[in-house]
Amino acid sequence: MNTYEIDAAPAAVKRSRVRYGVLAMLVIASAVALADRANLSIAGSAMSSELGISSVQLGYLFSVFSWAYVLAQLPAGWLLDRFGAVRVYGCSLGLWSLFTFIQGFADGLPVGLIVAGLFCLRFALGLVESPLSPGNSSIVAGWFPVAERGTATAIYNSAQYLAVLVFLPIMGYLVHYAGWHWVFWGMGVLGLLLTLVWARVVRSPLTHPRVNDAELDYLRDGGANVQMQNGNPSGSKVLTRGVLKMFLTSRQMLGIYVGQYCLASMQYFFLTWFPIYLVKGRGLNIMEVGLVATMPAVAGFIGGVLGGVISDALSRRGYSVSIARKVPFVTGMLLSSTLIFSNFVSSTYVIVGLMTLALFGKGLAAVNFAVVSDTAPARLVGVAGGLFNLFGSVSGIVTPVVIGYAVQSTGSFTIALYFVGAHGLIGAFCYLFVIGKLRPLSEKVRVRE
């Protein structure tokens, strides 16, 4: 059906806009998930003082989430393709909220087991949160046509900045006035309530009671993968060695994965060590950190949305998908590397300005999440998203630990900022000189019956 015919039709057949409500739920759920990853960075200083946790131990506690996230990415992608993204995502949301809540009782453990207990809880959090990013990609691929996918992807990725903007000041307030326990208890209860809302209002395009035929036709005609949201009965045969080889021997896909590794290094710095950098490296108190962190978060949110808008605008003007995705990504990664200059200034205002510019650039670059849907075979979006996030999660293992050792051995964040900033340059290089022209990956392997 022609889109213009739908627009010109009587009001009775005007297409519904349920996809925007689904996108809103993705944004809220992703913001809660990312706040649950970052809550240790807000509570970390108080917990370190009260529970005797060292910088290296804290670095490992930041990192262990990603250890589990790496291990679970491919199984998570298989679960999404096999049982449907909506169902798996909802279960994941409930479980990660439960593990967040339990972390608030960590001081009830024997003294020698506190770090080990937190380690196990953060590991469990990473396992059950693993369907988040590939689930977002899969749901967006089902609910949005290709021409809207860049903006939709950028909007749900902006949830990480929404998490900083909304939840960091609240968590800072809770730590300051109520104690670090309430950060975990409050976020856990919020996530459990959101799970109930998800179960009631989110469905696949083919089963949602509020979607009309006009919107379904619009999604199909625009290339949305509406069928995959209900799960694939043959999904048990999707994750094979041949499938993995197809992705991992493609120069295009390897360049995309390294780009995600570099982008994730920026993300994990801001989600883990950035608040502690402001406290220990720049002398701010935790209440000030909650307020100061909002400025970079606003810039990151604006950059995230703008990256998708720019990408889709370039597509509508006739530019290739390759140009539409690479322009905001490369520009953003180069801007994100400017945080290195924080090593050469002493003014808190200038440092916050540089971090704001870096987070704005990281937001622009987050359009790379749309590349998964652009390049993966339709039936393998979950697996492709799992591999994509696996590489990002490896960065989440490496970055917090390297920073922890650098801070403990040198007593400053100088080396840490060089380390993080270099990732921006490497990511831009990959998209300019390694990936080549972005195009859908030809599925050369066949699932054996």
UniProtKB/TrEMBL annotation:
Membrane topology (UniProt): Multi-pass membrane protein
The keyword Transmembrane helix is assigned to this record: yes
Pfam families hit by this protein: MFS_1
UniProt domain Major facilitator superfamily (MFS) profile: residue ranges: 22-439
Keywords carried by this UniProt record: Membrane, Transmembrane, Transmembrane helix
Domain of life: Bacteria
Transmembrane segments: 20-38, 58-79, 86-105, 159-176, 182-202, 254-279, 291-315, 327-345, 351-371, 383-407, 413-434
Protein localization: Membrane
Primary location class: membrane
PANTHER family: FI19708P1-RELATED (PTHR11662:SF399), SOLUTE CARRIER FAMILY 17 (PTHR11662)
Protein family: Belongs to the major facilitator superfamily. Phthalate permease family.
Protein name: MFS transporter
